[in-house]
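Per reviewer request, we include the raw input and output of the structure prediction for the construct analysed in the revised manuscript.
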Amino acid sequence: MSRVIGLTGGIATGKSTVSNLLKEHGFYIVDADIASRKAVEKGSKGLDEVREVFGDEAIIDGEMNRQYIGQIVFNDENMRNKLNNIIHPKVREIMEDEKQQALNEGKNVIMDIPLLFENQLQDTVDETWLVYTNETNQIYRLKERNQLTDDEALLRIRSQIPIEEKRHLADETIENNGTKEDLESTIIQFLTAKNYITT
């Protein structure tokens, strides 16, 4: 019987890498980030709503100005909530359609949702898997990836539920404190233990 798994993590924990590895092992991935881009894509109703709330500066060449919006919402919880109220209902609809299609085809589905616990979506899946790395690694990876200062990296990390708290909320934890090769081995061991890979 097909299963629906909620995959989450913290910012810069390596969730996208894990998602890609799970895809290689036959899981169908429904990606919240891709759905959120569709929700405000060029010409969409969602993009019009963003312009109404954030002004004309929020749009560049007909697309959402992510850098401009990011600077606002990471520093203002009220504006972050307004953005979420625009995007989240549309994202849920897009993801639900994809999930049902994959289940109809008999596939195991990964719902790749960065803010799964923040948005209290754990009851919408059969099981939750957390990609875990410690905060020191999060800060280092985020600084490297996005060219941020320590303070900027911490601000982004602290906008989410702490990774240690998520660890207690998740049904399963996938450790990612080492190299990509370490992670690949961890995934194989994890999926074998869960009977998704048979030897």
